[in-house]
């Protein structure tokens, strides 16, 4: 017999009795008017890195795409089926989001599979093929001398954010809106053990702790 996970039923009941009463009018309004989130988040599937939890988001506030290692592919109008590109198209052309945040994180299994060069998990090798988009043609990604495997993993986790930001700009509609100042692209990195958030400073290409920075106006 197939049973729906009890954990989810209990979770829904908690939502129904605790959160829903405070959000009911908002849900009704969102139902009638439709969604109009200003922020899109591209995050990892990892169960520890839920954007709605990290950013304490309410219904209708975040338009989220999650995939292995928070990767955005290069713009490729080749007739293929591109899930991330479809979500980007909707977010940018229909919702007119003002911000796209690429959210990387510590202990990313997708990055670890990539740097450990694991054997394919299935004949399709979907993770291997997906992660291969991280490497540009002719580029070599290797552990540096003196670099621990942990530091190497962290470097690649952050590099996945840079790569996605770079690839976002290959989408003509995104490039146009960024150039016009109507869309901003951001990078962020979540430290799982401490629950810490780091935001990319594009000028220095460093991730800065939000705790250390000034409160936003
Ligand atoms: Zn991950």
Features:
binds zinc ion; 217 residues; alpha/beta; six-stranded mixed sheet
Briefly say what this structure is.
With 217 residues, the protein is an alpha/beta fold.
> What structural class is derived from the secondary structure elements?
alpha/beta
Give the termini separation. 55 Å
Rg (C-alpha, Å): 19 Å
Q: Reading side by side through the largest sheet, how are the strands ordered? A: 2-1-3-4-5-6
Helix percent reads 25-40%
3D structure, described in words:
The chain has 7 helices and 6 strands. By secondary structure, the protein is an alpha/beta fold. A 6-stranded mixed sheet has the order 2-1-3-4-5-6, with helices on one face. Strand 4 and strand 5 form a beta hairpin. Helix 4 crosses helix 5. 26% of the residues are buried. Zinc ion binds next to helix 4.
Task: Describe the secondary structure blueprint for this structure.
Blueprint: H1 6-33, E1 39-44, H2 51-54, E2 62-67, H3 83-94, E3 99-105, H4 109-115, H5 126-132, H6 149-168, H7 172-179, E4 184-191, E5 196-201, E6 206-209
Parallel strand pairs: 1-2, 1-3, 3-4
Antiparallel strand pairs: 4-5, 5-6
Helix pairs in contact: 4-5
Zinc ion binds next to helix 4.
